[in-house]
Amino acid sequence: RPAPGGALSCAPIARWQDTEAPGVPTIGASTRACGSSFSSWELPVHYWTITELSAQLKARAVSPLEITRAQLPRIAALNRLLHASATEAALMALQQAAQAEAEITAGQYRGPLHGVPIAVKDLCSTAGIRTMGGSKVLADHVPDHDATVVARLRAAGAVLLGKLNLTEGAM
Question: How far is CA 87 from CA 21, 128, 137, 159, 171, in A?
Fold first, then answer.
């Protein structure tokens, strides 16, 4: 958040705690970016920033498979309430995470998105995954190509968890 004078502040922000299943990775206050610290409790992985997650993946402190496996049950559970996911791609995500893990372990780190689980809006074409754009008319549309943004995310080694809902036609 901007500090007086427009500079970014690294002051801690308030985040709520929630319970996690055993084995869900957490990050301690001592490893927060900018030297900021939270209280002594640790943040569940779904609260990590991409910068934090990327650093942990690059350092091999956590694995892409571990992170992806932690996210999938949370997505499934919360989607029943929030209806945020248009399409979940759990099997593909696990395969991509395994590939990212093998590459990172072999020293073939592609950059800051390598192994990071993401989801894209359902407006973006994804080869082999239905793309509805929020429209019932396109409920069975499965493109044979990726949108440029998706192709670039894949090339960077990001792990695609699925597609996110939006209003029809992204209006």
Answer: 24, 12, 16, 14, 19
Which residue numbers in the chain have pLDDT < 70? 1-41, 171
Q: In the chain, how many H helices and how many E strands?
A: 4, 5
Q: Which two tokens stand for residue 166?
A: 């939006």
Q: What angle do CA 13, 15, 16 make, to 5 degrees?
A: 160
DSSP E strand stretches across 13-158: 26-27, 43-44, 85-88, 117-121
d(CA 48, CA 23): 16
The pTM (predicted TM-score) of the whole model is 0.76
Q: pLDDT tens for residues 82-113?
A: 999 999 999 999 999 999 999 999 999 999 99
Token pair of 122, please? 């359902």
Return the residue matching tokens 């900021």: 36
Mean pLDDT of the chain: 82
Amino acid sitting at position 47: Y
pLDDT at 171: 65
